[in-house]
Amino acid sequence: MTAALALGTVAALQAAQLADPGSRMLAFAATPALMEGCGDVPEAVALAETLRLRGIAVDRGIEALDQREAEIAAAEERLTARLTELRAAKQALDDTRTARATGADEGIARLIAVYDVMKPAEAAEVLGALPPDFGAEILARVQPEVGARIIAALEPSQAAILTARMGAPRSMKD
Question: Residue 15 and residue 67: Cα distance in Å, rounded?
Fold first, then answer.
């Protein structure tokens, strides 16, 4: 009867420890008092020791999980910070690309204004010396009347190349 009572008490304490982790230390400290009078029952002593060792193993496992959880939280913070940095770098790159494109468009707009006021023969001579894609881009953007006069002033073969480039879809130019 005493052995059964001791086993039941130890089992109840172990269940209480699992339900309330804060009470683990209290239960382990009280175990020798609970075993009072049961020291002569080897099964009860062995069971109490097994439960004590399991409790220690569970405590260590919980500590390891807590440590791993802290490591994961730190890694998440580092990843979040890196993601923020990468997003900022991407935004800066996009801003730079936009600024370059705007600058290039402004430069072309100034060139077009220059070609609009040039004499057609002079404009044709300069456009004929430019790479065909760039010349066609400028020619496509000048005023239509000015463009027609420039094309008329070009050599027929050069006019054909620039006209073909002006009408070609963008994917064919690349």
Answer: 25
